[in-house]
Amino acid sequence: MSEHLYLLTICLPLGTILLVFGMRYLAIIRQAKAKTDQDEAYRALAESTRAGLAEMQARLEGIEKILKDVE
Questions:
Q1: Half-sphere exposure (CA, 13 Å, Cβ side) for 35?
Q2: What is the pLDDT averaged over residues 5-23?
Q3: Which end of the chain has fewer CB atoms at under 10 Å, N or C?
Q4: Mean of the pLDDT values across residues 6-26?
Q5: Residues 58, 53: Cα–Cα separation, whole Å
Q6: Backbone angles phi, psi at 55, to 5 degrees
Q7: Cα separation of 24 and 31, whole Å?
Q8: How far is CA 53 from CA 13, 45, 69, in A?
Q9: Cα 54 from Cα 39, distance rounded (Å)
Q10: How much is the pLDDT for 59?
């Protein structure tokens, strides 16, 4: 058996194993990052909803005050 073929048969399976584990850990990192980005998007949406509700509440109070003055 030639030396090049022997080294190739040893290195290719080891390289494949390392590649599979590397891809696995890369996928885990990307999933964690995507989850973090999604959580931040939910927080931003919740904050904008709260701001909109506060503005609507202020308008409603103003309308109620005007209607009470008219009575």
A1: 6
A2: 93
A3: C
A4: 94
A5: 9
A6: -65, -40
A7: 11
A8: 60, 12, 24
A9: 23
A10: 94
Judge if pTM exceeds 0.70: no
The first and second tokens of residue 55, run together, are 């503005």
User: 62: number of CA atoms within 13 Å, CB side?
Assistant: 6
Q: What is the DSSP string of 19-55?
A: HHHHHHHHHHHHHHHHHHHHHHHHHHHHHHHHHHHHH
Please compute Rg for the chain using Cα positions.
Answer: 31
Q: What is the pLDDT of residues 25-46, one digit of tens each?
A: 999 999 999 988 888 888 889 9
* Residue found under tokens 């909109």: 52
Reading the block at residue 66, the tokens are 């005007």
